[in-house]
Predict the structure.
Amino acid sequence: MADFAQTEIERRLTLYQVFLKLYEHHSSLIDEIIQLENLSQPSFTRVKACYIHGVVDTAAVYLMTNLCDNQTQSLRQPQRIWTIGRNRSSGICIADSHMSRRHAAIQHIDDQGFYLIDFNSSNGSFVNGDRAVGPIKLKDGDRIRLGNMTFDFFVNYTCRILPTVAMELLMQLVHRKNDHTVEILPYSRDRQKPLLEKPDDNLEIFRNSALVEKFEHWYDNFSSEQKSEILDRFFSRQIPYNPS
């Protein structure tokens, strides 16, 4: 019995040493395992993923993150240097006892990208498990650990202009009313009344309906492209009047 207990103690000590080595060289892997374990428990089912998102466009360079005050914010800094630490004067203040007062910073350099710089912090800064002994260039999807805080870093340099939304869909979207409330205009092809034989009769019915007031209000808020599309669709659907 004593031999069995001694063997079990040695086995646990060996396993503990393995985990120490693994945490020393691959700490991010251990953090992810712990997070997955926490997510399987009912009390952790709503754990929020933490992130920093670097955005580069023609107008400005800024960060978006949910690390500040537990809500997503856009952070603009004239020198493009975002300090991170326990100090309240830090651009990104994180109340973590394992984080130094001035722990690290993310810096953007033109034509190069975003970099993580560690300020000789006590517990270090890590990118994908590698300790930052100098500036580390950040890539989209990198995993960063500062103190006891682990988060993902994302970056984008491109912007895509999408085409305008078709009128059939616009008529189903939310519209603002004058009393600061919103309403959804129902639109269905199945409920369209057939046009009368004469275009003048169609126009008269449209003028007498309550829809004309709503349409005039929305029409003033449309862009020139949307107004053009409305007119094109209107005239393309007119039934030519045949006096015979």
Notes: The chain has a mean pLDDT of 78. Residues 10 and 16 are 10 Å apart (CA to CA).
